[in-house]
Amino acid sequence: MERLDPKKLTVEFSPDVTKTEPIIGRKYTVTHSDQTAELYLSIGLEYAYEKITSMRDEVLAEWRTNKEETILFVSVLVGGEYNPIITSVRNEVFRRELPLALEAIRYGDRELFAAHPELDNAPIIVNFEAPNTDYDQLENWGIGKDYK
């Protein structure tokens, strides 16, 4: 993979989490700058809604449990409008750029993964949200170590 340039990643931890705890309920907000190509990762118990712009091109992720299994549940908004052309383009962009966002989460929260190595084998489930059922999909995107 190795698309991530760590020098272009800024990581911010909120006061309600440490670098290794908690796991369940830990949330990630990944945003970026089109001008500088920098990525911003906020880690906390709430999403960093104040960092979300009107473009709605953020990636939101959260550690959850599903039948005793820990999963990283990721959400992206590919279509908030009923315009199939815009939804199609956004879907394409998210699918192309999502591996970079997942790398940012894996790298930016690497101390959590080091303290809890089982998270490298946790499934990553991605919810592509759209009003159009052709794009409204729930997909398995591998495991944490795929983005190491």
UniProtKB/TrEMBL annotation:
InterPro entries: Staygreen (IPR024438)
Keywords: Transit peptide
Pfam families assigned to the protein according to its UniProt record, in alphabetical order: Staygreen (PF12638)
Domain Staygreen protein: 4-147
PANTHER family attached to this UniProt entry: LP06106P, PROTEIN STAY-GREEN 1, CHLOROPLASTIC-RELATED
Stated name of the protein: Staygreen protein
Native source organism of the sequence: Lachnotalea glycerini
